[in-house]
From TrEMBL:
This is Rhodopsin domain-containing protein. GO terms for cellular component: membrane. Keywords: Membrane, Transmembrane, Transmembrane helix. Residues 325-395 are annotated as: Disordered. It comes from Apiosordaria backusii. Belongs to the SAT4 family.
Length: 395
């Protein structure tokens, strides 16, 4: 009777294992992502109230962790080894978990993108065209998430034939589905990346601050790179061993976890600024010359011309000195810098406006501290009437 055991094509074939490709990034992100979400929630609650974007990010983390746990379980059943050396119960269990992991991965990734777009909507809520574009992209992502999830569940009929190879069934072409999902995901990543940059470059702020905003909005570059590498791995590789050819799975893990990290990183800066303001507070140089104008305001010459902001000016007059101080905080003329707070949630003035607005959220705000030094003007003594003309009749 012929042996039912698979023949080893070369020595060491049965011992080959790529499980570390899955375990290392999964362990790292499973620890990092909840920590970053905790920082995000803390920073948001310290400055404003939570909104729908925060709750969606928490839901994205739930599916994120669920997917990571599934990958742990897949490794336990031999994921990373050659499929023809695995016992059938382990092989079927690994494929079944991988089947459901595809579903939770799609939900986690798309919810993360929706939360990131809602962050952009809060920042640039005053730009109607941007808001409509972002909301349209959110609707597209949600609809695609639903449709791709349904297709993923119904990829085989009956569904169980997707992982139990003993069950005959009809399946869609998985490679076409994977490639299409990867290309659409890459396209939405690129759209999310470039969407805010025209508005950032159009802000009336110094070039140095525009450069400082680039990392905040440019974090999506890492997501685009990971998504592109995932698409490349799917296009050039021909998966013949579903538990061993896992380069696409590696980039999948990196893509959805890295997207969540990029979503939470701006809040880390907010916490650092709040904790160590002297170190992490952004500075744009020396205070610019300001002059007091009628109507309790001051003007400032800068990028975009002369602009006026309403300001309440407190005047402290010291007659023993030849100068007095006028300032928003009553500080002396110590040469302190004007500062801009970038993406501080809860600050007044969303969307980088020059004039603080009523919206609260993760706005790009400008804070200008000004000091004015002047010499008091002594009023002239009243003129003494000449006695010779005191009794002259008035005309």
């Amino acid at each position: 009777m012929a042996s039912q055991q698979p023949q080893q094509p070369y020595p060491g074939y049965a011992d080959e294992n790529r499980a570390h490709w899955v375990l290392i990034p999964t362990i790292l992100f499973t620890i990092l992502c909840p920590f970053l979400l905790a920082i995000r929630i803390y920073a948001r609650r310290a400055t404003t109230t939570l909104d729908i974007g925060d709750w969606i990010s928490a839901l994205a983390l739930f599916f994120n962790i669920a997917t990571n746990v599934m990958f742990f379980a897949m490794v336990r059943h031999g994921f990373g080894k050659h499929s023809d050396v695995l016992p059938k119960p382990d092989l079927f269990a690994a494929l079944q978990i991988w089947f459901f992991g595809q579903i939770t991965h799609k939900i986690a990734l798309h919810l993360t993108k929706v939360s990131l777009l809602l962050l952009y909507v809060r920042i640039f809520s005053h730009v109607r065209a941007f808001k409509l574009t972002a909301m349209s992209l959110i609707i597209f992502i949600i609809l695609y998430m639903i449709s791709s999830t349904i297709v993923g569940i119904c990829q085989c009929i009956p569904v169980a034939s997707a992982w139990d190879l003993n069950i005959p069934g009809k399946c869609l072409n998985l490679y076409i589905i994977w490639n299409m999902n990867g290309i659409v995901s890459l396209a939405t990543d690129v759209a999310i990346l470039i969407l805010p940059f025209p508005l950032v470059f159009g802000l009336h702020i110094p070039l140095s601050q525009k450069v400082m905003l680039m990392p905040v909005f440019g974090l999506g570059v890492f997501i685009v790179v990971a998504s592109a590498l995932r698409v490349h791995s799917l296009l050039v590789s021909h998966v013949t061993d579903r538990t061993y050819d896992i380069i696409g799975t590696l980039w999948t893990i990196i893509e959805y976890n890295l997207a969540f990290v990029c979503l939470c990183l701006p809040s880390v800066r907010v916490l650092l600024v709040k904790t160590w303001p002297n170190i992490f507070k952004s500075s744009v140089g020396r205070s610019q010359t300001s002059g007091v104008t009628p109507g309790n305001g001051y003007t400032r010459s800068g990028t975009g011309g002369v602009r006026s902001w309403p300001s309440k000016i407190g005047l402290e007059l010291d007659t023993r000195r030849r100068w007095s101080r006028v300032g928003g905080d009553g500080t002396g003329l110590d040469g302190s810098d004007s500062t801009d707070e970038i993406l501080r949630p809860g600050e007044e003035g969303a969307g980088g406006r020059d004039v603080p607005g009523p919206e609260a959220g993760a706005g790009i705000t400008r804070t200008v501290r000004y000091d004015v030094e002047f010499e008091p003007v002594t009023p002239p003594a009243p003129a003494v009437a000449r006695s010779g003309r005191a009794n002259e009749p008035q005309d």
